[in-house]
Amino acid sequence: MTQSFNVIIEKDSDGYLVASVPSLKGCHTQAKSYDELIERIQEAIELCLEMENEEFEPLEFIGVQRVTIKQ
C-alpha cells in the first residue's frame, strides 16, 4: 500500500534543513543536505506509522502561507 504525506521543510539558523509532517504527531527530523533529509523523513514517517495506535487520516494539502505579526 502506498501513502503520501505533506512534508514541511524549513532551514534553521545553523543551516540545518528541518522536515516535519503535520498529520503525524511528533514526526520530524533534520539534516544538512536535502537528499539526507528526505531519507530521514521517510524513516521517521515509517516509525511514526508503526507507533500510531489510531488509523491515519491524511490531510488535504491546501497551501503554505507566511504570516507576519508586528510586535
UniProtKB/TrEMBL annotation:
SUPFAM superfamilies the UniProt entry points to: TTHA1013/TTHA0281-like (SSF143100)
Pfam families attached to this UniProt entry: HicB_lk_antitox
Domain HicB-like antitoxin of toxin-antitoxin system: 5-55
InterPro entries: HicB-like, TA_system_antitoxin, TTHA1013/TTHA0281-like
Superkingdom per UniProt: Bacteria
Protein's UniProt name: HicB-like antitoxin of toxin-antitoxin system domain-containing protein
Organism of provenance: Crocosphaera subtropica (strain ATCC 51142 / BH68)
